[in-house]
Design brief:
Structural class of chain A: alpha/beta
Distance between the termini of chain B: 17 Å
CATH superfamily of chain B: ACP-like
CATH architecture of chain B: Orthogonal Bundle
Strand order of the largest sheet of chain B: 1-2
Oligomer: heterodimer
CATH class of chain B: Mainly Alpha
Structural class of chain B: mainly alpha
Helix content of chain B: 40-55%
Radius of gyration of chain A: 26 Å
CATH superfamily of the largest domain in chain A: ANL, N-terminal domain
Largest interface: A-B, 29 and 26 residues
Number of helices of chain B: 4
Strand order of the largest sheet of chain A: 11-12-13-14-17
CATH class of the largest domain in chain A: Alpha Beta
Largest sheet of chain B: 2 strands, parallel
Shape of chain A: globular
Strand content of chain A: 15-25%
Largest sheet of chain A: 5 strands, mixed
């Protein structure tokens, strides 16, 4: 069995020279195949690198990519990496409307990444370009078609020289978050995580294994898991267009059956969708016994969905060991833990009372589940050699086995930080551990995720910022401003969105109309349909002393069935008002201090004498306006 | 010659895909306001394509806002002489 040890993605592309038998196969919507061997991919990378260099792009420059089809995306991404550029993959506009909100998200991402060029298809160019005039850094659009042309003369096709610490690409998290954060992934991170996934986790053999993926390539699981890691370890992959999968979910399993796929990954919702859409005649025809890993990650794993999938697909000879729950996130490049290849899906049933009161994961008998006194969590396996997972309490103390706290990770896969965001980087990556924002526990080294500490909502594999959903809710006439809470709860098959809000309604009809209006607003703006909208009396939702709504407490009350019934929250006594005033003052001072520090830090990065003078002037102006506003 | 009434086909598709009963659809109905999530919308598109034996290009779909927009797109993609109404 061949061992692959390329020191970087560029070296992995380079060692593809002469390997013409295997590589990547791209299916289009009509199932037509385009095969690019490892050798072809190397040639394409070199050619595209030369084109990009001709545009003046050089090592370290970021370049945005909006390319929906794998056959354009993959060689272009690899070509950009070959030239030492920092590609910024972005999701293409999705169907049926919402072009405006898409453009807003694009603009905020691009203003963060500051690319000089955007690579896209000529037919998408006009759809996109109109919205991008707000991106100052952008000088122009490069079309995928141009990059396919023969390499320009007189431009170097040599690989860039990179070190482990050099940036390889920027991974912006999917979905709509109001302040986009780009994970800065280095070349060292890519090598480490590719090894963890392909060698430690999946024990791949390039002679035998065959990946099948419909995952979007602008998403970490699709890009790292099925382009970068397979390129490092020379595992052939067949790519299905994402939209083709969404249009027709069974195409995924049909393709696995046809090409004898051995490895595939998808979020929980895809397993639910595939189970729902599969017809008996397909089950009778398919032979899925070839698959050794049906990986499941990227959103909370629902054990019922997984069991239903195994049950249904057992008729298509699915090996029950093949189901592979895993845990990961873009900040850790991709993978953090997998269960073993020979292990079956397993869950841990713990006592609800001990969990809620003492943050302890005490195992109890399965029968307690039906009595509603227990909760079930999926075993997400162990982390990889060279990596470490720790559980920490709010004071930063490390917890022992079966104690619930924040999951933190360290090791060579942990990214450098967030691109040009020192504050967020310190918060999440500071102190040598990646703070995942997930709550969970360890038992015998296995990771169990119980929920989110951060309030990010993950539905259908996309991240939603609860604040954005709450703002949308606040816009609806009749909703008390600043008194709505968005969160998710596990549904029968996947996560469901719940909105809880405060309003004064006169009748049942009025309440129903308000619920409907909120649902409309969210669907319209986010293409996400709330499963339930709960209308509570004014002042009944839990808030902190500074008047901030407590999402996790509201969520817990909702799950317990006590939301809106806890009596009224009032700001009565003077003592409380003093506490509130002090809190507001402290937070204002803290914020301006922080901003001032950032301005000074920025000013210290001086390139010339005139630069220094203008920055000092700016800093002075900034501090004085902030102080005037404060006092 | 094929005759297609977009709102009826849309209603039928939504019912099959997500079990949702949609009433009072007209050309002016904005699709994103119908309470369908993004996965359901794509499944719906697939349903249209299958029923009408057409292919709707992704870049055209991005510009579709209303039932009438969808009708215009379908009309363009159907064989000449087909009657498409909404």
């Amino acid at each position: 069995m061949a061992q692959w040890n390329a020191p970087s993605l560029i070296a992995a592309i380079d060692e593809s020279k002469g390997m013409t038998e295997k590589g990547f196969t791209f299916l289009d919507r009509d199932q037509k195949e385009l095969f690019l061997s490892w050798d072809d991919l190397r040639t394409e990378s070199m050619k595209r690198a030369a084109h990009l260099r001709k545009y003046g792009l050089k090592k370290g420059d970021s370049v945005a990519m909006v390319l929906p089809d794998g056959e354009d995306f993959v060689p272009t991404f690899l070509g950009a990496v070959w030239a030492g550029l920092v590609p910024v993959p972005l999701y293409p506009p999705l169907s049926l409307g919402k072009l405006d909100s898409y453009k807003d998200t694009m603009v905020s991402v691009l203003n963060k990444a500051e690319p000089t060029h955007l690579i896209t298809l000529s037919k998408m160019q006009q759809v996109l370009w109109a919205g991008l005039t707000h991106v100052k850094s952008l000088k122009g659009v490069i079309t995928a078609e141009e990059l396919k042309a023969p390499a320009p003369e007189g431009v170097s096709q040599d690989p860039a020289q990179v070190t482990d610490d050099d940036l390889a690409f920027l991974q912006f998290t999917s979905g709509s978050t109001s302040t986009p954060k780009g994970v800065a992934v280095t070349h060292g991170n890519l090598r480490a995580n590719a090894h963890a996934i392909m060698v430690d986790g999946l024990k791949t053999d390039s002679d035998v294994d065959h990946g099948v993926s419909w995952l979007p390539l602008y998403h970490d699981m699709g890009l790292i898991g099925f382009v970068i890691a397979p390129m490092f370890h020379k595992v052939q992959v067949t790519f299905i267009p994402t939209l083709a999968f969404v249009r027709q979910a069974t195409l995924w399993l049909e393709t696995i059956h046809r090409v004898r796929g051995t490895i595939t990954f998808a979020p929980n919702f895809a397993y639910a969708l595939a189970t729902k859409r599969t017809k008996p005649e397909q089950l009778a025809k398919w032979d899925l016994s070839c698959v050794k890993a049906f990986g499941c990650g990227a959103e909370p794993i629902n054990s019922n969905t997984m069991r239903a999938f195994v049950d249904t697909m057992s008729k298509a000879k699915l090996n029950p060991h093949a189901l592979l729950p895993c845990y990961g996130m873009a900040e850790a490049t991709l993978a953090i833990s997998f269960i073993g290849l020979d292990e079956t899906l397993s869950t841990d049933v713990i006592d609800t009372d001990a969990y809620q009161k003492h943050r302890a994961a005490e195992p109890v008998h399965v029968s307690k589940l039906t009595e509603g006194k227990a909760q079930e969590f999926v075993n997400c396996g162990k982390t990889f050699p060279g990596h470490e997972v720790g559980i920490f309490d709010d004071e930063g103390r490390r917890l022992s086995d079966r104690r619930i706290g924040e999951i933190q990770v360290r090791g060579p896969s942990i990214a450098k930080g967030y691109f040009r965001d020192a504050e967020a980087t310190e918060r999440t990556f500071g102190g040598g551990w990646l703070k995942t924002g997930d709550l969970g526990y360890l038992a015998n080294g296995n990771v169990y995720i119980v929920g989110r500490k951060k309030d990010i909502i993950i539905i259908n594999g996309r991240n939603y910022d609860p604040q954005r959903l709450e703002w949308l809710t606040d816009d609806v006439a009749g909703v008390r401003k600043g008194s709505s809470v968005a969160f998710s709860r596990p549904g029968p098959a996947s996560e469901e969105l719940i909105i809880v809000l405060e309003a004064r309604t006169a009748s049942e009809t009025e309440t129903e109309a308000l619920k409907e209006a909120v649902k409309q607003r969210i669907v319209e703006q986010m293409q996400l349909s709330p499963t339930d909208v709960v209308v509570c009396p004014l002042g009944s939702l839990p808030k902190t002393s500074s008047g901030k709504l407590q999402r996790s407490k509201t969520r817990q009350q909702f799950l317990d069935g006590t939301v809106g019934k806890e009596g009224n929250r009032t700001l009565g006594s003077n003592a409380e008002k003093v506490v509130l005033a002090r809190h507001v003052a402290m937070s204002l001072i803290g914020r301006s201090r922080h901003r001032a520090r950032r301005v000074v830090e920025h000013a210290l990065e001086v390139r010339s004498m005139s630069d220094a003078l203008s920055k000092l002037r700016l800093a002075g102006d900034y501090v004085s306006t902030r102080l005037t506003r404060l006092f | 010659m094929a005759t297609v009434h977009i709102p009826s086909l849309f209603q039928q598709a939504a019912l099959e895909v997500s079990g949702k009963k949609l009433d009072n659809l007209s050309g002016a109905t904005v699709i994103s306001k119908l309470g369908l999530d993004s996965v359901a919308v794509m499944e719906l598109v697939a349903h249209f394509e299958e029923k009408l034996n057409i292919r709707m290009p992704d870049e055209d779909l991005a510009k579709v806002q209303t039932v009438a927009d969808l009708g215009t797109l379908v009309k363009r993609l159907m064989p000449p002489g087909s009657e498409v109404t909404w």
